[in-house]
């Protein structure tokens, strides 16, 4: 009887551990009244010190002696903080993270979400185009797993376009019947 109780407690602890989220709370839930990137770019100095939750796709990673700078192309976020796979953006921003981030893990093309406070702007360039980057002092961040490409499965050559795997046709006999012709549909002629 004791072993059943121990087994039950172990299974319940395992199930509850599966419900835990690894995404930090500031990244998962947006702050109240957060400005958009377009609003900050229109009024660069007017939003300093405000809390934001932005995310997108990493473009570049630069490690310095005490911090890591990430250039990120902004993307709209889902309710849980993950960037949407959308072809629209309000621009780019810089995220300053205290400490060292491994550039091979935080590689260009990876999805990244930050939560922190706005800390002015930095002038830079994209190619030869002059650009003003809003800077986010990062308090919490999350690197999202790479999305798997959906498999493109071609239909099997022996299925015709009108094949319905859920509906048995009256001329098609079941496997237990004496006149079963195999798993393929019989031709109409």
From TrEMBL:
Keywords from the UniProt entry: Lipoprotein, Signal
Any single GO CC term annotated in Swiss-Prot or TrEMBL for this entry: outer membrane
Signal sequence range: 1-22
Bias-annotated ranges (Basic and acidic residues): 40-51
Region described as Disordered: 23-52
Protein name: Outer membrane lipoprotein, Slp family
Lineage, top ranks: Bacteria, Pseudomonadati, Pseudomonadota, Gammaproteobacteria, Chromatiales
């Amino acid at each position: 009887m004791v072993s059943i109780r121990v087994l039950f407690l172990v299974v319940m602890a395992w199930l509850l551990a599966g419900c835990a989220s690894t995404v930090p709370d500031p990244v998962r839930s947006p702050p109240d009244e957060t400005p958009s990137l377009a609003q900050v770019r229109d009024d660069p100095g007017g939003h300093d010190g405000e809390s934001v939750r932005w995310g997108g796709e990493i473009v570049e990673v630069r490690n310095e002696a005490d911090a890591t700078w990430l250039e990120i192309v902004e993307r709209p976020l889902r309710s849980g903080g993950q960037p949407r796979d959308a072809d629209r953006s309000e621009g780019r921003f810089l995220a300053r993270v205290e400490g060292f981030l491994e550039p091979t893990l935080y590689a260009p093309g990876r999805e990244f979400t930050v939560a922190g406070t706005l800390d002015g702007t930095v002038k830079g360039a994209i190619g030869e185009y002059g650009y003003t980057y809003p800077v986010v002092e990062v308090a919490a961040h999350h690197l999202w797993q790479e999305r798997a490409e959906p498999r493109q499965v071609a239909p099997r050559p022996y299925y015709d376009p009108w094949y319905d795997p859920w509906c048995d046709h009256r001329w098609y006999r079941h496997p237990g019947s004496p006149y079963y012709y195999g798993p393929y549909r019989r031709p109409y002629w």
